[in-house]
Design a protein that fits this description.
Helix content: 10-25%
Structural class: alpha/beta
Number of strands: 6
Radius of gyration: 13 Å
Distance between the termini: 19 Å
Largest sheet: 6 strands, mixed, barrel
Mean pLDDT: 89
Low-confidence stretches: none
Number of helices: 2
Order of helices and strands: EHEEHEEE
Shape: globular
Strand content: over 45%
Strand order of the largest sheet: 1-3-2-6-5-4
Length: about 100
């Protein structure tokens, strides 16, 4: 059994299409981390590490570290560009 991937992210301060495009241009992918009784976290994570986690651990648990707090999550939805297949957004649910 392989080790859980760890994604280190930063909380997003900007929202909307323009902010998401700027993040993607910088190699980051916007993700949402949510769960029952939890406030939704909007986070940017490195695109390459996220791609590897989606590719290799689609149904597995993933650790997302934000501001020193680790959230063990499961991928709920992955949004890709329809032509290039580049990751656009991922929703994580706290396990």
């Amino acid at each position: 059994m392989s080790e859980k991937p760890v994604l280190v992210g930063q909380v997003r301060s900007e929202f909307g299409k323009g902010a998401a495009r700027r993040a993607r241009r910088d190699g980051l992918v916007p993700v949402s981390v949510y769960g029952k009784g939890q406030e939704t976290l909007h986070v940017d994570v490195p695109g390459h590490e996220l791609f590897l986690a989606v590719r290799d651990h689609r149904q597995d648990l993933v650790d997302v570290v934000v501001d020193g707090t680790t959230y063990t999550v499961v991928m709920r939805e992955v949004q890709r560009h329809p032509v290039s297949r580049v990751l656009l957004h991922v929703d994580f649910v706290i396990a």
